[in-house]
Structure formats: structure tokens, C-alpha cells
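Hi team, as promised in this morning's meeting, here are the two structures we talked about. I've kept the exact order from the run log so nobody has to guess. The first one is mostly here for context; it's the second one we should focus on when we meet again. Sequence first, then the predicted C-alpha cells.
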Amino acid sequence: MKPAHVLIAGGGIGGLTAALALLQRGFAVDVFESARAWADIGAGVTLAPNAMRVMQHLGIADQIEATSVEPVRQQVRHWQDGRVLMALDRGTRMRDLYHAPYVYAHRADLHVILVAAVEALGGRLHLSSPVTAVSADTHGAHLTLADGTVATGDLVVGADGLKSVVRLLQEPAPAHFTGHIAFRSLVPVTPELRELADNPGNFIGPGRLAVFYPLRGGTLLNLVFFGRQPGWSDDGWTIPAKRSELETLFAGWCAPVQQLIAAADETNLYKWAINARTPLKSWSIDGRITLLGDAAHAMTPFLGQGASSAIEDALVLARAIDAADTLPEALTRYEAARIARTSMIQKESNDNADRMQGDDADLFGMSKLRNEETLGLFAYDAGTVAV
């Protein structure tokens, strides 16, 4: 295949990882991002060994590790009394088994590393450039911006998230509400919170889940509280929330959970509906348009594999384009390597929500455990899987 010019809609983790992987293989890349600046937004993201192995292939794993936290273990705790139901080894065992670490990263720190790596290889990043339409014909793939500008290349990659404009060509319908809501806050690690920061994990209970883990050298604690709420109608990622909402939702939960809620800063406390997408049989159109990350397979967060799956997509797509003789062949290879896996993760993530928010937390783990490791997700290598 002659050197391709790839247009990427969306400058998030998946879009930038794809840009870096493509640039390293000699392709020209333009990334179009709707935001006006690369802001210090978002909070924590889990990068499991399968994601960190991609970063090793791309040569930026050391930089990510330097700004992340590698936990020794994760603890699953009971909602009533806080006792540990299960401890999961996340330290040296991960490196020994999978040759890559399990880390917690701040999204903004990861973003800075990816932007610098893309720019260093000549990737063109366009801010304030929301994509409003895409199309393809015999002359190429076309991407239209809100100001009417049309960019043309050989391939358009829709990495534009849950509300993807590119996906509308495949499925002209919005994402569906999963019945789950989430609250998040990022707080300093005080002496009172040190024990929880050093032993991250979650508290599980009927219809609810509280997740906590450290960031930036253990100086910050990322808090995420999940509940179920039918009939959600508000839309947005950063809807302001009140601490009293969490106090009501988690009334009767143990003292450590109340401690986490009390630490949440209302100036930095947000809530959102967890929406998702149903699996598609194909992500591609006319051999010139395809999807990646949440645009392709937005999932619930209950396996912690959303970002990791987008990162895997990025490397597999770049490898498929590099290996194929034509773009249609490349996209066929890409889908063959990715759709079955991501569809499985979407389903298992939904199922894991029910396991972790079951009516009797004492039963958790008593049957055969189905989590991201036992399902084999950590062992996947996007850099060597057949394309």
C-alpha cells in the first residue's frame, strides 16, 4: 500500500494512540479535536498490562510509569463492615506473568505524553475542530468540520467517543442508558486517607459500588461512586453533584465509605449517566471509514477495560494498515482481530456489574471468579496478535 493519509476524529486517548502508532509506521496523520485546548480534565484511568504492553511497543511505557502509580494489590471489601472479601495481586506478579505493569494514571498526564509523542513525529493536531460529518467516495475519505472546512485523506477513523458523529453512518441512534450513574471526585491524600490510598480497591454492595485508587505518586485519590437510577434524563459528563446525594445513596454503608464521601470536594464532584453501545457486526464503511474506542464499543466501566480496549484498537489498526495491500483489506483484518474481543468485554463488563452489586456481597468470589484476569484480558498482546 502506498503511504496513507489518515484523518482521526477525536483527540482522546484512543485517537492519539492511533495517531502515534500510524506515524511510527510512516503514515501521515491529522487529528481533529473539538476542545479548544488540551486541558487538565478528567481524573483517573486504569491501564492494565494489556494496555501497558501497547505502550511498550510504542516506546512510551517508561514515561507513563514515571507519572503513574503501580499498586501492590487491590482489595474488594464488604459494604457493611469494610472487611476484605478478596485481595488481588497487582504488583510484581503482573510483570512476571504479563511482562507489563498494572498502573493507575491521571488522564491528563497520559494525554500530555501522547500529545508530545505525536507532535514529535510530525502529527498535525487541530484543536477547536469539531467534526460534523464524514463521507467517502472513489477519491478518498472526507471529514467536515463545524466551520465548513472539509479535510480529505485516504481513511477516516472515528475515535470521537460515545456520541460519535462517525458512528452515525453505521447506527443512526444515540447511545443507550445502562441504568447506572456515577459520581467522581479527585481529592488530596490526607493522613486520614493514607491507609485507603495504600490499599486501593472497592467496596461492593447491593446496587452500589465505591471505587478508590491513588494517582500522581499517591498524592491524590480518585473516587468513583456507582449506583443504579432508572429514568435518567440529564446529559453531560460534568454535571455538578452534591455530597448529600452520595450520603443518601450510600446511607448505612461502613465508616470508610462515609470517610471517602466526606472527603469529596463539592467544587470537584460531578455525576453522569453511564451510557453504552451495543456491539456492531462491522465498524467500517466503503473501505475508507472505520471506528475505534468508545465510538466502536462504548462499554460500562465494571471491568476497567474501556481505555485499554481503545489503546489495543489503536495498535491493531495501525498494524493492519501496515500489513495490508489495500485499505479495505486492512479494515477487514482490523475488524477480524478486534470485534469479537471487544463485544465479549462489553458483555462481561455488564455481567460484572451484577456480580459486584449483587444483593449478598458475602457470596462474591465464592463461585468461579470472572474478572479481567481470569477472562484472559491481561494476556492479550495487540502488538503480536494476528492481523
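And here is the second protein, the one for discussion:
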Amino acid sequence: MRLRPAALLAPLVLLTALAAPPVAVAAAELAIPPIAYHQRTLPNGLQVLSVQDHASPNVAVQVWYHVGSKDDPQGRSGFAHLFEHLMFKSTKHMHAEQFDRLTEDVGGANNASTGDDVTNYFEVVPSNHLQTLLWAEAERLSNLNVDEANFKSERAVVQEEYRQSVLANPYGKLFNAIDPHSYTVHPYQRPTIGSIEDLDAATLPDVIAFHKTFYRPDNATLIVAGDFDPKQLDAWVDQYFGWIPKPATPIPQVTVQEPQRRKNLRYTVTSETAPLPAVAITWLLPPASDTTDSIPLKVAAALLAQGDSSRLYQSLVYRHQVAQQAGADADGRVGSGLFTAYAILASGHQPAQAEKLLHEEVIWLATQPIPAAELDKVKTQLLTSELKQRQTAQGLAFALGQAALIDGGAERANTDLAALQKVTEQDVHRVLQKYVTGAHSVTIDYLPQPAGAAKASGEAK
């Protein structure tokens, strides 16, 4: 997942020689004003990030907890996701779903998401409702009702989400199988949505223990962006969050390192609902905090898959017509991430055909000259997307959260855009040769199979 933040994109100036044939030149680098954020930490360990933006009388409030699916207990996948739902239930001083009343009834909105490394809760309201939202976020951090009724009702909701997004979606099982087959020892191998079996096995004491372990002020980051008075914000944060005690017990940390792959692996996953086959290939990436390589890898993925003019789409969908959809992604995480390329086949074609073309396009991009116009176009698309989202208070808050919790530090929200503009053809070649064409892969063949046929299998190659 993901929203991101805001600002206006200044026009790019292309230099051309007078009375000379057109020459491809690099786009002028933009001087982007930094996000002027303020950062402090309360005595109880709560990290607070704030940034003023008086463009509109709105304010975004987000709380990012440093817990994701990688922290799910063994045999209890889906716990972090389950808590995303439980946090909207009742507290000591709020009724269930009262967040909807505090946000939607005043013209705002609220939502939440769970990832591999974090769980975040986010709201946007008119700025005169900031105090209420800060109280409400502190209330559900400190006084959540984790009881049998709330647990069972939300577990049923999460299980229904699994049925809809994984079982009912023809290609849901394919994307849900990527993490389990791509990691061997790291808990990233547990899908964020969990499984019906693991959720059925959960008990109320399990849930209470998870809450006490991870939902604490020293494991959270509060982000406020938009129209507010800084002194008043600090006073309200101290008032509503400052009293919450910091537990004496340490926060469990995932220290497992995913080893480098020593051979290529291949797995087969079958589907009773998919009308056509598909294939996905993954390679391991460095953590998102690796600033030298993480940004060129995003550019590489965009060159392969950003829009209908991208290389994978042009090759697999248009020229060879073996696929109806093709894509690539560089998924940066706190630990080892994944570079993924995939294709959903067209009628009459098999995974091996698409797999061959996926490898060919990746190798070509990793070794052959990249036209300057193509590279500039993709970087401009990525830059524009980031800057457009920073036009809102919610988007500014997301930029800070992503930078602070995933990318290694809040300052990345400012430095990454400058680094993106500096990515060269040589950078793209270097990272692809290091992490993709020069490394071992995991390939997943996704095959339609009638009901009652053999289950998914795997084999090394």
C-alpha cells in the first residue's frame, strides 16, 4: 500500500539548439522546497512529526504503529491486520465505530491499512476538530476494549476479506502466494491478510497479549499535517498522549535476515477460478533504507511497467500478444524487499512464453542503452506523482510516515526527490545487474485447475 503527499510541479525546461536538428537532452532538475517538518519525542517514547500547511482549513492526523504482518505470532498470521479492525471498536470512553461519527459527520474521513512492517491509522477533518481527533487517537491507544465480542466480530470480518480478495478474486491466490514462496526464513513469508485457519486458531488471550506487546507509545509515531498552531498542537499532544505509560518490557524486534538465494526455485500454484494462466518472478532486494540502490530500483520497475508505453506492456501485450496484463514492482521494506515481474496470459498462451519475454525485457534493460527521453519521462512521471500527492495535508503526512518508518528516516521525504532526479542509465544498469539479472529468482506458475484436482506444489531447479 499506498497514498503519498503534495506540492506543485514546476514546468520542466528543455534546452534546444537554434537552427539545429532536435537533440534529446535531460530535463532540468527541479529545486523542490523541502517539507519543513518538526520532530520531537515524548518522555514515554512517542515520536511526533508535524508539518504546517495552511493551504486549506483541514488537518490530517495519523498514527503509525511499528508493527506489521512480520510481527504476527507463529501460527497466528493476520494478527496485525486483525488489530487494524479492532482499533475501530469500542474503548472505555467511545462507542464502536465512533471514529466515523467524529470524522465523516463533520465532513472528514478515516481509514487504516496494514503492511509488512507497519499498521497506520489516518484521518482528515476540518482543523477546528484537531483536538477531538488527538483525544480519540490517544483514547484507543490507551483504553481499547479487547473483549470476546469485539474479537469474534472482527475476526469474522477479516476472514470474509480473505474470501473476497484471495479466494473469490481469480488471481488473488497468485499475489497472495508471492511472499510465502519468496522468503525462506524471514517472517515476511506470512501474508498480511493471514489465513482462515490461523485466525480460527486464535484465542482472546492471544489477542490481548499482542495488543499489550505492540500497541504502546514507544512503538508509535504520531503525524499531524495541515492547518494548526504549533504551540497549541504540542500542548494537546502532551495533554492527551503524555500521560500514557511506557511499559517496562522491551519491544520484540525481528532480527532474522533473509539469506541470499543459492539457486533458482520454481513453484506451481493452482486456481479453481482463474480463467487463464499467469506467471510471477521475484528477486530479493536490499532494505528500503539503502538509499544508493532503492531509488534506482524504483526507476527500473517504472521503466518496465509504468503505463501502456512501458517495456513489458509493449512487448508482452502489444507486440507478442501473449499476455493481457504485465507488470513489475520494486517493493522496498524495512528488511529485504522484492523485485517482482508478472504477467497474466492471453488466451492460448502458457506461462513459459511470458516468462521468457519477461526475462528478455529485464536483461535488455539491464544491459542495453536506455534512451534519454524514455528515462526522463519515467522519472518525471514518478516525480509528478509524488508532488501531486503532497498538495494535501493527508499526502504530506503519508510522505513523512513512509520516510520515517520504512525508508530509514523522516529526512528521506526531502532527499529522495532530489536523488530520483539524479538517477542515470548507469544506475539502472548497476542495480538490475546486482539484484536481478545477476541473482537467483523464484518463479511461480499459476495454472487454472478444475475443482478437486491436485493441490499447489513446488520444486527447485
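Starting points for discussion:
The chain has two domains: 37-241, 265-460.
Residues 148-167 form the longest helix (20 residues).
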